[in-house]
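User: I'm writing a tutorial on reading structure tokens. Could you give me a worked example: one chain, its sequence, then its tokens, then a sentence or two explaining what the tokens reveal?
Assistant: Sure. Here is the example chain.
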Amino acid sequence: MSRSAATPWFGQPRGLTVLFLTNMWEQFSYFGMRALLVYYMTKQLMIGQAHASVIYGAYTACAYFTPIIGGVVADRFLGKRRAIILGGSIMAAGHLMMTFEPLLYLALATIAIGNGLFLPSLPSQIDDLYEPGDPRVGWAYNVYYVGINIGGFLAPLVCGTLGEIWGWHYGFGAAGLGMLAGLAIYIAGGRYLPDQTRAAAPRGKAGRRARMDRRTVLLLFGIAVAVTIFRGAYEQVGNTVALWADSGVDRAAGGWTVPMTWFQSLNPLLVMLLTPPLLRHWRRRAEAGAPEAPGAKMATGALIVALAYLLLATVAATSHGRAAWPWLAAFFAIFTFGELYILPTGLSLFARLAPAGLGATTVAAWYVTIFSGSLSAGLVGTLWHGMTPPAYFLLLVAIAAAAALLLRALDRPLSRLVAAQDESGEAAC
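And here are its predicted structure tokens:
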């Protein structure tokens, strides 16, 4: 019996549940530690705010650079399974080292190194769970993406609460235990995953290496450029949009004031709520013989995000004084809907178009777009104080729309490439 024909869980191969839960707990550990880091440095270690920001920025930058090296190590030397187990173990050790104040820098370096091995190796296994042409692979990455957001939603509630009430070390300890829980799930569920030794070529990908030609590289580069542009607008939710929520939104509700951070929690919560109906919609389209092309899907997502920012621009321009908080909630709903169209699909494309034996390396390149996009967002964010909120939000509309136009231009050659990959994969089986 093939992997995709085995008795599924929730309509998907059992291995996807294993990867989903492993990813969820890894994200719990990462975001749990990150939620405490700046507070820990400034309140417990008495590090100055500017110095703490430099440390925080250097750590997050390394967290998205190390996967490039880790992906190569996984593909050429360790294999994905060993890379995940080793990387996760190193990360867990780093989280637990955070409970000892003198080990701060060593702990952060340890987590970044472990993350480099772990991060690209896990999602690059998703495509191996499916036979070529299986329509479920397209939305499997949306299911995986939910795991990221469940972990990101729970981490501040658990690790943050423990850190603030019981002590920072308890919060870091909880993050370490979360990483160990993810490792335990991955090891226990290994029988539901395909062989991930370095020498093994996944079934259906025997001819993939020869097709990682100049055209494929250029298309992936084009997607990376478009996503980098898109993130210039996307990443503002934690930056300039958060500033506007503080100064430009009336957060009064029923005699009390809604905390600013609660609006930030809307995004992962909405990812969990919106993903199931969206998957049902895409499944019906696939069953009707009209699946949405990946490039067009990503372009749609960028346009929806542009509409979300257009809503903010309109509200900021027409509200007298502060805008009512339900408008901000509506923004997050539209914003998250667009996010689900573009970001999981982009990760899926980098994994699906990877040549045999270089899956982790190619997926690692996707995470570089997060780094470059974050730099782009930082540059865009510097314009906030020199513009009015309506004008600034219209700028974000233009940035997201530009990314949509580029993605739409890539749709036709990208669709041909994906179709050719599926056809050759079926022939190789």
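What the tokens reveal: The CA atoms of residues 238 and 264 lie 7 Å apart. Residues 205-429 form a domain with the Growth Hormone; Chain: A; fold (CATH 1.20.1250.20).
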